[in-house]
């Protein structure tokens, strides 16, 4: 006979299974980006540099948020600020630590240098 402890354990497993579906960031790919736009998906373009302390602060915040069930459809594309200058120009980013969100084909928000989890969350919510 199931106990309350079993029910709680089962609920925790269901929640963990839900977070396993979260999309991991992938290097920017034009065809995948256009496909996500065509599907009307929420999209995050993350422009960062490996030496950037703000970018390092943003990454775990973004990982935690993208693991939440409400962001399960979020497509996350990364662009390296130093080695992908053509893409940095395409997205009109002037600095590393730039986060750009799209709702389908429409840019709905961007931030530069943001490290407050609640403000990053508000930015991502614009894409839903």
> Beta-sheet strand percentage?
15-25%
Order of helices and strands: HEHEHEHEEH
Order of strands side by side in the largest beta sheet?
A: 1-3-2-4-5
Distance from first to last alpha carbon? 41 Å
Spans where pLDDT lies below 50 across 5 or more residues: 1-21
The percent range for helix content is: 40-55%
Q: If you compute it from the alpha carbons, what radius of gyration comes out, rounded to the nearest whole angstrom?
A: 16 Å
Question: What is the 3D form?
Answer: globular
Number of helices: 5
Structural class of the secondary elements? alpha/beta
The major sheet is characterized as:
5 strands, mixed
Structure description:
The protein is α/β, with parallel strands linked by helices. 42% of the residues lie in helices and 22% in strands. The chain has five helices and five strands; from the N terminus they run H-E-H-E-H-E-H-E-E-H. It has helices at residues 4-19, 30-38, 53-66, 85-90, 117-125; strands spanning 26-27, 42-48, 75-80, 98-103, 106-112. The protein has a five-stranded mixed sheet, sandwiched between helices. A hairpin with a 2-residue loop joins strand 4 (98-103) and strand 5. The chain is globular and about 30 Å long. Mean pLDDT is 87; it is low at 1-21.
């Amino acid at each position: 006979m199931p106990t309350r402890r079993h029910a709680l354990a089962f609920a925790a497993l269901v929640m963990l299974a839900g977070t396993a579906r979260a999309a991991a960031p992938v290097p920017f790919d034009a065809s995948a980006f256009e496909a996500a736009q065509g599907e009307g998906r929420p999209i995050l373009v993350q422009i960062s540099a490996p030496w950037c302390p703000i970018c390092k602060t943003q990454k775990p915040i973004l990982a935690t948020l993208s693991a939440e069930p409400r962001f399960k459809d979020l497509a996350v594309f990364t662009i390296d600020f130093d080695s992908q200058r053509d893409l940095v120009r395409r997205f009109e980013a002037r600095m590393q630590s730039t986060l750009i969100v799209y709702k389908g084909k429409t840019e709905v928000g961007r931030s530069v240098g943001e490290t407050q989890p609640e403000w990053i969350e508000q930015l991502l919510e614009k894409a839903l």
